[in-house]
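Attaching the record inline, Q. Sequence:
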Amino acid sequence: MNSETPVKRDPSMLDALIPMFFLIGMLSLAVYIFGEDASWGPNQIALTFSSLIAAIIGLKNGHAWDDMGKGVVKSISQAMGAIFILLAVGALIGTWVMSGTVTTMIYYGLQLLSTKIFYPTVVIVSAIVAGAIGSSWTTVGTIGVGLIGIAHGMDMSLGVTAGAIVSGSYFGDKLSPLSDTTNLAPAVSGSNLYDHIKHMLWTTLPSITISLIIFTIIGLSTSVTENMTMQEKTLSVIEASFNTSWWLLVPVLVVLVLAVLKMKPFPTILLGALTGGIFAIIFQPDMVSQFVDRQDLSKPIVMIAGVWKAMYMGFTTSTGSGTIDQLVNRGGMNSMLEVIWLILSALMFGGVMEETGMLKKMVTALLKMVRGTGSLIATTIFTSIGTNIVASDQYMAIVLPGRMFKLEYERRGLAPENLSRTLEDSGTLTSPLVPWNTCGAYMAGTLGVATFAYLPFAFFNFINPLIAIFLGFTGISIKKIDKSKTN
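Structure, as predicted:
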């Protein structure tokens, strides 16, 4: 008997919407049940079963299981560079907190605080820390908690303070080569990490400048009483637990210099991690010994073991301060595994949707509204915002629109940096503005300020998408594909 190859049929709009609505329902249920922990397992399960639903519809339409599997492999392979970078970032964070590099930045950053310019200073301090560690969540969960406490003591508005923390944290996170979303967006769109960061300056610098001006005006018009007890306590804990020195900023300088020299991100970050480890041995030898806790090993081997351990499992210690402990007890390659799991699950769903033509079906419907570059960027932004609202996850708001619009940007001769920048301008930045999004839930729960209370003051987060739309319609900073590089 001759087996006939099934005829592949184009999906209907209903076919394309069924997996999407199933995914939206499961992600919403995951956030309802698990709250801010939804991204650490529940969302991955939702994506996996949504991929299965999409695959079943694909089988109905004549697509072979092996072909859909190849589509998934192709989808995931495009993000492998970002995945290895994330592992390197985990190692770097581990050695930087052990060396005291992170706490040194916080130590000097906190000393910038003053009553008259409290709000803009909060933005700057949050941006410095987030840029150094590449994580808005960790910045909010550590220094953000301390800043909210200081705001209590200084009788400052908690809503405005929380908005300043979120603004600064996401600005620093967005421009940090250590950030997962900053690596994810170019991986999805096909752009280079450093080109992506450079291209984002067109939208981020005007946005943060406007935000700082507004925060300064609010601060100067507010009457406050100064109380720096919490600030002094935090500084004293850092002084008692870590050796602080301007020399400990050298690991940061190493990464920045290598980035300027355009070394590939993976070796750059690994060398930054190694530098952090060396500085931990030099400046925090007692802490490294206590961290390893192996009396049977010689001191040189203990030092090596400490750096090794911090790279794979992160650093842990007890300083007596819950705020500082949350900051320094982190890092390691294994800390990135759940984020990688989420990325792989999202790319699996996107791979099946693309291979079966369902992604193209939805894109075609959306692109009917597109007339030019400006409307394409605006459509991408509103799609990412919509994904943040209905899917409740910033990674989904980057990956799914990125997969949906990538080919259209290429067809119109637009460089991939335009797409990666737009994904971050919308998908990353609006995630903390949605109360039921994992980011919004985390920010509100950690800072103790309701999302809708700080939302009006998270100026950077909603000004940035508006500037992106403006640049799209005016054509300012829009890059075309350099055909000389593609030949």
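Residues 13-78+351-480 form one domain. The two ends are 47 Å apart (CA to CA).

More tomorrow.
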